[in-house]
Amino acid sequence: MDNTRELLMKKGSEYSVFCYDIERDEIILVKTSNETDLYECACMYVAQRINAIEALYIPLIMAISLSNELAVTFPVDFQLIHLYNVGRCGSTLLCKAMNATEDCQSLSEPDFFTGLYNYGM
2-11 vs 60-73: helix axis angle to the nearest 10? Predict the structure, then answer.
């Protein structure tokens, strides 16, 4: 855990949550190439798959512990809102409009939540 903790403390912002592997009970993070802007792509999960250069597998219990520690070490002041949209509904346009503001960040189609739904979570 110390190596994973140290890596995430130093370079955690370079990784994004990709998916949850229920069979291994692990969260998978990916690092994409420097040219990849996940906030600008139409489908985050496609951009992650195409541009992934590293993957980090973390047991779920460790990921929860590390996220709690990171929240204390790097406190942020924001409100998280999760909007679920069905396909072909204009969600890409909505994400681009939200990203055009200075006060909001939006990710279009992160696949992590789809995986949780498919596992019945």
Answer: 40
Torsion 56-61-62-64 (CA) sign = positive
- Stretches where the chain sits below pLDDT 70 are 1
CA distance 105 to 114: 20
Give the containing element (helix H, strand E) for 63: helix 60-73
- Beta-ladder partners of 14: none
pLDDT in tens, 31-59: 999 999 999 999 999 999 999 999 999 99
Assessment of whether the complete model's pTM goes beyond 0.85: yes
Q: Where are the domains of the chain?
A: 2-76+109-115
